[in-house]
Prior knowledge:
Blueprint: H1 6-29, H2 34-56, H3 64-89, H4 95-121, H5 128-154, H6 162-188, H7 205-208, H8 213-232
Amino acid sequence: MTLPTRKFLLRIVIFSLSATAVLGIVAVLWTGLGETGMKILASAVAADVASFLALCCTGRVNSAWPRVIQVTGILSACLGLATGLCLIWWQPAGAGLAEAIARATGMLFILAAASAHACLVLPLRSHGRLARVVVTGTVICTAAAAELIANYVLVPNFDPGNGYTKALTVILILDVLGTILALLLHRLGPPPAAHPPSPMATGSPERRHSGNPSISRCARKPRLMSSRTASSA
């Protein structure tokens, strides 16, 4: 599956931010945009958020799991934008349908935000054992926090109690701490160990060409001819 390029998504982000800024300036200077103008402004803000989250989910990956997270984040951001625009412009008559679309939009954006955060942290995992442990714990905290926050969006009148809120707060603190530590280890930690030079790159010409018998024989012929010439003389 071919993912959108970072350059393409970056152009969308720049265009959306520029449009949002222009609409905001118009709303300030002309004292209001009207109902249609407010819908356009809300649509631009939703496009800004969705395109930024999708941009965070792009980049090169070397394994299947990071690619799955990238695809999940991009699809969630696009679907969240679609449901958000539907809620802004369609405005369903039934209260239950509007609430369901709003909950789906919130859930999709939460999933996109968690995927974007994981995509930004996972590339820092290859710098030492401590960095791998910190990044793995941070991604787990991100997933747990997204799960706990999503319950507020999915379940109507969700009131889990004080213990639930404390647990969510602790997980969010650990998530922020892990992100900061991963960035510091990536920035200030030791560089990756350099690979030692191979024996083929050093030593005598015969040793360098030992992997190719024809080349080694060609290298020996001048020496044999010179030794025979010296002995005959």
